[in-house]
Design a protein that fits this description.
mainly alpha; 0% strand; elongated
């Protein structure tokens, strides 16, 4: 019995020794595994960092290459702009009709004579020379003149870099607003003639968010507004559509207010630094001048109440204070209105002795502003803005002259309307 107990004791001792050895062995293996795991993690971290460093270096090299290419491209663009301006700015100025030429135009007695004159003495020869004689009436000529403006816009857009194109996209909004206003007049006044927009379709299809193909299917204001869905103009017009007794004037006012407030808000998103500074000055000044012009019209021609005048104004004040706007809107007569106007920063550009309409004063003031901007910043958006402004003014004068010739006005009367004295 004792021998059995001794044997069991030996077995237990052996088992304990084996367990202790196994535990010791396990501890050694755990330590070895932990060391290997740490080494693996360290090696992996080093390899990962080395790989990431290579990626960073490659990205930095690619970025630098891209920046160098962009800088080279920008330098080339600026150099091209400078060369273009230096070699052709005189030619561009010469392409515009002069005051003397408008005096000659005012003496013409028929639309056919006007077309012949423009073919012989202006840059419009390119768009007018192939017109059939049977097509030489005011409506068709106006289309051709508008197309010349779109053609110039397209040439400028193609030539410009990314920053200038952002400005042109903002500028395009005024053409979009004009298009919508034209369509509103058709549907609200129930004109019998169809939409005459085929000549504008290629330009708007290429540059605009508006689909002329949709607009021309409109027969009511509700349909017209719905056909603007998906554009930025849908929401401001939809609010009016759901109102009662809305007039063409209401739609026109809503579009103008939206246009200027949207331009003012979006300018910081699209433009930077010098371009932003120029645009802010030009757009802000235009808003100030329009507000003064609308106050003038409301008081002189419509005798509107103060509350109605305020509803017409763009809610943005650039260089004219709220107090000055209030004083003009609440002026008891036109002398008091002009007395306030003369205290504004824009008065020095107004020659009151010329007895011009305030509309022409508006145009003259913008001309002085844009000219100064272009002179000081010839390789910026100022040159684009100035050219398009002059082009639009020239088309306005030509359209006015055509209307005067059509109704048989004499030379003095025509010049009066063209020059803003009537």
């Amino acid at each position: 019995m004792e021998s059995i107990i001794n044997k069991l004791t030996e077995i237990e001792s052996a088992a304990s020794a084996i367990a202790e050895h196994a535990e010791l062995q396990k501890s050694v293996l755990d330590k070895e595994y932990e060391e290997k795991r740490k080494q693996f993690d360290l090696d992996l971290e080093q390899e990962t960092q080395a790989h990431l460093q290579k990626i960073r270096e490659a990205l930095e090299a690619d970025t630098q290459t891209l920046l160098d290419q962009q800088a080279e491209s920008n330098d080339s663009c600026v150099l091209a702009l400078k060369k273009e301006y230096e070699s052709r700015h005189t030619l561009y100025a010469q392409e515009m009709l002069t005051d003397e030429q408008f005096e000659e135009i005012s003496a013409l007695t028929s639309i056919t004579e006007l077309v012949s004159y423009l073919n012989a003495n202006s840059s419009y020869q390119d768009v007018l020379q192939d017109m059939d004689e049977t097509m030489l009436h005011r409506g068709n000529i106006e289309k051709v003149l508008i197309l010349s403006l779109y053609h110039d816009y397209t040439k400028i857009y193609r030539f410009c870099g990314p920053n200038q194109r952002k400005f042109l996209k903002l500028y395009l909004k005024r053409y979009e607003v004009d298009l919508i206003n034209y369509c509103l007049r058709i549907v609200i006044n129930h004109y019998q003639e169809p939409f005459d927009l085929n000549h504008k379709k290629p330009f708007f299809d290429k540059y605009s968010q508006i689909s002329i193909e949709k607009l021309i299917t409109s027969r009511t204001t509700d349909q017209l507004v719905e056909n603007l869905k998906g554009t930025e103009y849908y929401e401001p017009l939809k609010k009016l559509k759901d109102s009662q007794s809305v007039t063409l004037f209401d739609y026109d006012l809503a579009l103008n207010l939206y246009y200027f407030t949207a331009m003012w808000k979006e300018r910081k998103k699209f433009l930077k630094k010098k371009e932003l500074e120029l645009f802010t000055r030009d757009c802000g000044s235009k808003i100030d001048l329009l507000n003064m012009q609308w106050i003038y019209r409301a008081k002189k021609h419509f005798n509107l109440k103060e509350a109605d005048i305020y509803s017409l104004l763009i809610p943005i004040h650039y260089r004219i204070s709220v107090e000055q706007i209030k004083a003009m809107a609440e002026a008891s007569n036109m002398d008091e209105f002009f007395a306030v106007l003369q205290k504004t920063p824009y008065a020095r550009h107004y020659n009151f002795e010329q007895d011009l309409t305030i509309e022409q004063m508006y145009e003259d003031c913008l001309y002085h502003l844009y000219t100064a901007d272009r002179r000081q910043n010839p390789y910026s958006i100022a040159s684009i803005n100035m050219y398009l402004f002059l082009k639009e003014e020239e088309l306005r004068k030509l359209t006015t002259a055509m209307e005067c010739i059509r109704y048989g006005l004499n030379s003095g009367e025509t010049l009066g309307y063209v020059g803003g004295k009537i």
